[in-house]
Amino acid sequence: MFLSRLVYYSRSRIGRDPQTLQTEIDRILESARLHNRPSKITGALAFDRTWFVQVLEGGREEITETLSRILVDPRHEDLVLTEVTAISERAFRQWAMTFVDDSGLTQEICTRFSISVPLNPPLMSTASLHGLVRALVETQARAGQIRT
Ligand code: FAD
Q1: Whole-prediction pTM value?
Q2: pLDDT by residue for the chain (148 residues), tens digit each?
Q3: How much helix, strand and coil, in percent to the nearest 5, is found in the chain?
Q4: Residue 59 and residue 44 in contact, taking contact as beta carbons nearer than 8 Å
Q5: Which domain does 115 fall in, by range?
Q6: Is residue 148, in this structure, part of any structural domain at all?
Q7: How many domains does the chain have?
Q8: Distance from the CA of 104 to the center of ligand 1, in angstroms?
Q9: Cα 1 to Cα 16: distance, rounded to the nearest angstrom
Q10: Ligand 1 mutation pick, 69, 77, 90, 97, max ligand atoms within 8 A of CB
Q11: DSSP code of 141?
Q12: Would you give the DSSP letter of residue 22?
């Protein structure tokens, strides 16, 4: 298998109602894990109520097939692909799709990636987007708050 990583950001269309947000995020994650496990796709989804940033890792055919479904999902829009690259190992190997919100966005993380709050993914490099998602996952995993 040729292992690849895909990174994108998109704008949420889910709205701000907390109950709707919770329901839709749960549905997205349930569906993602259902499809990703048999396809051996791993990754992480970060969400700050405005923006999604997602990292997908896996075989290039499987990633392409997954992206084609994600692209037509009406729960987000303005999807921008920032990277598709060959990788030798996965960063999120234990997760079919882990989820992080922006609660772990500390001053230390903002300084490390030269970002401000609220996030503005169009102004972030791919390295920053990927690094930020990794840092949020690591922070929330250390705090025992990771959603798997
Ligand atoms: P079905 O579940 O039968 O859905 C049919 C259509 O309805 C699809 O076009 C779907 O986009 C849409 N749909 C489904 N549920 C809703 C809803 N509650 N409201 C409005 N429209 C809906 N899927 C993965 O497999 N892997 C991922 O990693 C992944 N990540 C995602 C990240 C984000 C930010 C979003 C928004 C979605 C993600 N999805 C992911 C879900 C993906 O977009 C598809 O909904 C899912 O793969 C199911 O596709 P399906 O063909 O089985 O369609």
Answers
A1: 0.95
A2: 899 999 999 999 999 999 999 999 999 999 999 999 999 999 999 999 999 999 999 999 999 999 999 999 999 999 999 999 999 999 999 999 999 998 888 899 999 998 989 999 999 999 999 999 999 999 988 888 776 6
A3: 45, 25, 30
A4: no
A5: 3-142
A6: no
A7: 1
A8: 26
A9: 40
A10: 69
A11: H
A12: H
